[in-house]
Specification:
seven-stranded mixed sheet, 48% strand, four-stranded antiparallel sheet, mainly beta, globular
Length: 125
């Protein structure tokens, strides 16, 4: 089994930057697509970014393109989301996820089978 734990979420001012991390354990997730999702109270879960096992391909949601960068360090079994130019609308619980499926949509949360408990990011105006 794979366990995922996010860290680094905190309060940050609008326009600032923050990097959240996701540590995987149980087994290596290097063969897996990993992604970041976010959810604010009363809103649907939203795909933020995804990256393939090798890091050759990335995906970003339209709302974060040009501001967020997903990366991974497979030697450390850790994934990262660098968030720049933060806006109050970025406030949400951020979740990392991984999927062992070969046939999947990286932006579809139902296609991920491993999830972390989330880390809260709050952006003040």
């Amino acid at each position: 089994q794979v366990q995922l734990v996010e860290s680094g979420g905190r309060l940050v001012q609008a326009g600032g930057s923050l990097r959240v991390s996701c540590a995987a354990s149980g087994r290596t997730v290097s063969p897996y697509v990993v992604g970041w999702f976010r959810q604010a109270p009363g809103k649907e879960r939203e795909s933020v970014a995804a990256i393939t096992g090798s890091g050759a391909n990335t995906y970003y949601g339209d709302s974060v393109k040009g501001r967020f960068t997903i990366s991974r360090d497979n030697a450390k079994n850790t994934m990262y989301l660098q968030m720049n130019s933060l806006k109050p609308e970025d406030t949400a619980a951020y979740y990392c996820a991984a999927t062992s499926r070969l046939n999947r949509n990286v932006a579809r949360s139902d296609d991920y089978n491993y999830w972390g408990p989330g880390t809260q990011v709050t952006v003040s105006s």
